Amino acid sequence: MTNASDTIESTINAAEAAHFGKMAADWWDPRGSSAMLHRLNPPRLAYIREQVDLHWNADGTGFTPLAGRTALDVGCGAGLLAEPLARLGAAVTGLDAAPENIAVAEIHAAQGGLAIDYRAGSVESLRDRRFDLVTCLEVIEHVEDPARFVRGLADALAEDGLLILSTPNRTPVSRLAMITLAEGFGAIPRGTHDWNKFLTPDELTALFEDAGLRVRDVRGLAFTPSRGFALSDSTALDYFLTATRA
């Protein structure tokens, strides 16, 4: 018999998990349904490396700034971010709501000789585990109860840890770019986003503060035809938010 105290209330949205699970086999194809994520990875990694170096006083020249540290990638998909984090030296745990994604991630990591602890489930299922770095990129707009989800991320963060999250902003720009154009013309699979579930930087900052976190950086992610995706001072389309324990 399961005790009430042992029951874990998950923030996973089953429909969202099923949507992304259908994309699992195509995840590592840079021209497939996850092509947009492949284009996002370079500025993502640049931002993460910048924040990691700043937080742990690294000089920015080493190849493995996360050596000796643990990292958790929440909503890892098939491992597009988890694998680079492992190559940066971290002992990585990848967590995703779709078991199909985890199966593909495990195979791809093994083919690349990477030891990554992949798990299917919600962040709440980790219970008492703590990580030096927690990443959660383009995920919070797909979960049930964002406030509880943020508390789960905060609970997974070590005392001197670093939390990096990215998500689309709820603006006319994001509606046009991500819903009307990207989904309308097939760059992103239709039904991937619900614009009404996007959070503004102020709304997300409030959730972080309520969870006992201190936001230390907010940076935009912009797109231009000439440059593609790049870090920006404008948060109108998408943005990163970095936090530590308060």
Question: How would you describe this protein?
Answer:
With 246 residues, this protein is α/β, with parallel strands linked by helices. It has seven helices and eight strands, in the order ααβαβαββαβααβββ. It has helices at residues 14-21, 35-55, 82-87, 99-111, 146-155, 172-183, 201-210; strands spanning 70-74, 91-96, 117-120, 131-137, 157-168, 213-224, 228-232, 238-245. Strand 1 (70-74), helix 3 (82-87) and strand 2 (91-96) form a beta-alpha-beta unit.
> In angstroms, what separates the terminal alpha carbons?
38 Å
Helix content: 25-40%
Mean pLDDT comes to 92
Instruction: Please state how the strands of the largest beta sheet are arranged side by side.
Output: 3-2-1-4-5-8-6-7
Listing every helix as H and every strand as E from the N terminus to the C terminus, the arrangement reads HHEHEHEEHEHHEEE
Determine the CATH topology: Rossmann fold
Number of helices: 7
Number of domains: 1
Name the CATH architecture: 3-Layer(aba) Sandwich
Low-confidence stretches: 1-7
| Morphology | globular
Got a strand count?
A: 8
Going by helix content, strand content and strand pairing, the class is alpha/beta
Strand portion, in percent? 15-25%
Provide the CATH top-level class.
Alpha Beta
- CATH-assigned homologous superfamily: Vaccinia Virus protein VP39
Indicate the radius of gyration in whole angstroms.
Answer: 17 Å
**Major sheet, described briefly?**
8 strands, mixed
GO molecular function: 2-polyprenyl-6-hydroxyphenol methylase activity; 3-demethylubiquinol 3-O-methyltransferase activity; polyprenyldihydroxybenzoate methyltransferase activity
EC number: 2.1.1.222, 2.1.1.64
Pfam families: Methyltransf_23
Family: Belongs to the methyltransferase superfamily. UbiG/COQ3 family.
